[in-house]
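Running this now, will post back.
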Amino acid sequence: NLPDSTAPTTLTTARNITLELIPQTEQEKMDLWLRIRRGFAMRDLESPLIAVHEQWYSSRPAYVARMTERSRRYLHYIMQEVERRGMPSEIALLPMIESAFNPGAYSTSAASGIWQFIPSTGKHFGMQQNWWYDGRRDVVSATNGALDYLQKLHDQFGDWELALAAYNCGEGAIARAQQRNRAKG
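Update: finished.
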């Protein structure tokens, strides 16, 4: 007789140790990567540029492994916030592209932290910056700011792909590109 899969089951072993079997649904909740995959909601895009980047990452398994290991410190919190806000789970993986989950990452354009905020955008989204502290490198502060910003961009452009593009190159650049394309019909 199989145990009921909806309730935890305990078994006593020969060594007098009690094991608790977690129902499948609880195991799934605990498997972060399964939760991320199940929350994918964005369209699959095919383009030569995407193929180039896919090839770049797939040819560097050691780099991807280091980045994934580094993400363990932060990804549970990020995914919890993404789920709480009802966003596609792909958003939780954006720091892989932005900074390889390195909170000390710093770009030539002065972007910093796992979400790669430039100083002005960081300040606009509540990240204090002074001589001693940079909120862009604070994972909780930066995550909240990044998700607020991405939601604002989604509301502005009505599309997650455009929101991500605007996050990368600026909302003005996306708005101008839309205007140019509308003018061309």
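The two ends are 66 Å apart (CA to CA). More later if anyone needs it.
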